[in-house]
Design brief:
Length: about 60
């Protein structure tokens, strides 16, 4: 796992100036990975709301 992370960090550091994050992701991640990341990004705000609501009502 560390080898994969290190490789991605090197690829990120070597990206062309001005390349958008989206363009970089398309170049380095397969579509299923990008779709999973997008799904998590969409889920996170709702999950945050639910968890905060639970904490507030338990206190």
């Amino acid at each position: 796992m560390a080898d994969i992370a290190g490789g991605l960090e090197r690829a990120w550091a070597a990206r062309p100036p001005g390349q958008s994050v989206t363009d970089w992701e398309v170049a380095h991640f397969p579509r299923p990975v990008r779709e999973q990341v997008r799904a998590v990004e969409e889920l996170t705000p709702g999950l945050t709301t639910v968890l905060l609501d639970l904490v507030v009502h338990r206190a």
